[in-house]
Specification:
By secondary structure, the protein is of the alpha+beta class. It has helices at about 1-30, 35-45, 55, 70-85, 135-145, 160-165, 170-205, 215-235, 245-280, 285-315, 320-335, 340-355, 395-400, 425-440, 475-495; strands spanning about 110-115, 120-125, 130, 165, 170, 360-365, 365-375, 380-385, 390, 400-405, 410-420, 450-455, 460-470, 505, 520.
């Protein structure tokens, strides 16, 4: 009885086994597309050279808009992978979310964009499964046309056998094509440089009286480098190189072009600074001569900072997080370097107020000498001992600056001591002669000066001379003093007076009248 009922009893078991067998593949398929990371892995891992299973790779695609044939679907999947490889777009699984309920923080939709540079390439969630979007499937053909401008892959099978062999896992014809592409790009860059030079010269002859040939050389050459890099980057995907190799080469090309652009910006800064320097040379003040190098260095520093960020961004470095780290580090650095910051602001104060110019004779906090340089951090003064004293700009900005170089007139004050045997008439003649010499001298100020018989000192009759020289340098002042004093010595000989020097006269009592007076100097 039991044996007769075995087929009937086995029927439910067979149904359960059949359901389990059907459920097994469905679970595996859902697991393959359960998250954005799983869907991408299913797509790419099954289109590798050693694991090529296109029938599995197409499971995580949204084919609702076609195509219907499995062969066409497989071709779309292969084309999409070729686009990624040709453009050097390496998918790092670690950067793709493994969350089945992932939501794009930008759009708020259940969507995962693989590359910010290709917003049309994304996965979206449909019926609890993550699939390559319909838009991506539809745009795959357009991406193929934009990526592969030359149909080199079609001619690969027709090439000689020695070109189809592999070198380090890469077909020989691709490496040869890479070398040929770089060579042609460099040759084209040289031709472009020659043509650009001719165009530049025509423009210069029409619009400019003079031109910096060094600037022209650097600009034209770097522009040609950028064009060559752009040509290589445009045609490189046609070779179909491995994704990591293509990614590395494209990063090198972008970095090279970015650095060239930064060098062009630096050359433009130099050109503008040279123009400012020519303007500064035409002015009488010397402070702007010192300001132009500071502007040049500051502009170059800013250019390089922006240029480095530009290069890093082109190399796919997350600049926003880097800027956040730099902001925190900059705050700590500014706290540690507050003295340096104070010196920088002190330099701005110096250039704004202009308490002195380059070459002025100044006295600052007991330091006396000639200003030779004003930098961002410090001011350098060459003393009259020929040493160089460096003063922080924060100190200079808050110090009392005695600018001897800005004097319009230089004072000369001296006491001329005459001997006590001089008569009143001789002193009057001498004072009148000194006044006449001051009025006649070409370097003295004529409207204000004083010459008077001032005091009767212990050893001399003192004549005060107080006058000013209208000169611009210490050398001219010393020359004027010398000429005046020599004229006063000649005047004393003419008038018959003598200049006194300290003496003592001793009178000894009890000696005969014949004994002379003993005079001790």
């Amino acid at each position: 009885m039991i044996l007769e009922r075995l087929p009937i009893l086995a029927l439910p078991a067979l149904c359960v086994a059949l359901l389990l067998s059907l459920a097994g593949p469905a679970q595996a398929q859902d697991g393959a597309c359960a998250s954005p990371r799983a869907a991408v892995a299913t797509f790419l891992d099954n289109l590798q050279t050693d694991t090529e299973r296109p029938e599995v790779a197409i499971q995580c695609f949204d084919w609702s808009a076609g195509p219907a044939k499995a062969s066409l679907r497989q071709q779309v999947a292969r084309d999409l992978k070729s686009v990624l490889d040709g453009r050097g777009l390496y998918v790092d699984y670690a950067t793709v979310s493994a969350d089945a309920d992932f939501v794009d923080p930008v759009t708020g939709l259940p969507r995962a964009v693989l590359f910010s540079t290709m917003p049309d390439l994304y996965l979206e969630k449909k019926n609890d499964r993550w699939l390559v979007s319909t838009l991506t499937v539809q745009r795959t053909g357009i991406l193929m046309e934009q990526t592969f401008l030359l149909p080199l892959q079609r001619f690969a099978s027709r090439m000689p056998s020695w070109l189809q062999g592999n070198v380090l896992g890469v077909p020989s014809w691709k490496l040869l094509g890479l070398a040929l592409l770089i060579t042609l790009a460099l040759l084209g860059a040289r031709i472009l440089e020659f043509v650009a030079h001719a165009i530049f010269r025509k423009v210069v002859a029409r619009w400019f009286e003079s031109w910096d040939e060094g600037f022209e050389q650097s600009i034209v050459r770097r522009l040609s480098w950028i064009v060559a890099a752009g040509v290589v980057a445009l045609l490189l995907p046609n070779l179909g190189l491995p994704v990591m190799m293509a990614r590395f080469l494209l990063l090198v090309i972008k970095g090279f072009a970015s650095v060239s652009a930064v060098l062009i910006a630096t050359a433009i800064v130099d050109l503008l600074a040279d123009g400012l320097q020519r303007r500064a040379d035409q002015t009488e003040t010397k402070m702007d001569d010192q300001l132009v190098p500071l502007i040049r260095r500051s502009a170059k520093m800013l250019t390089w900072i922006v240029g480095v960020l530009f290069v890093l961004q082109n190399l796919h470095v997350d600049v926003s997080s880097l800027m956040g780290s730099l902001a925190i580090g900059g705050l700590a650095f500014s706290l540690a370097a507050k003295d340096t910051v104070a010196n920088v602001f002190g330099s701005f104060t110096i250039f704004t107020d202009r308490p002195f110019q380059i070459g002025d004779w100044v006295v600052i906090n007991g330091t006396e000498g000639t200003v030779v340089e004003v930098g961002f951090r410090s001011t350098r003064i060459r003393t009259f001992y020929d040493s160089v004293v460096t003063l922080p700009n924060s100190v200079v900005a808050n110090a009392t600056v005695d600018n001897m170089g800005q004097r319009q007139y230089r004072r000369f004050k001296v006491m001329l001591g005459l001997t006590y045997d001089s008569t009143g008439e001789q002193i009057e003649a001498f004072v009148a002669g000194v006044r006449a010499s001051i009025e006649a001298h070409p370097l003295t100020r004529k409207d204000i000066f004083e010459v008077h018989f001032n005091t009767m000192g212990a050893h001399s009759l003192d004549v005060l001379v107080y006058c000013f020289f209208a000169v611009g340098s210490w050398t001219e002042e010393l020359r004027g003093r010398q000429e005046l004093m020599i004229s006063w010595m000649r005047l004393a000989n003419e008038v018959g007076v003598e200049f006194a020097f300290p003496t003592q006269t001793l009178h000894l009592e009890g000696l005969s009248a014949a004994n002379p007076e003993v005079t001790a100097p």
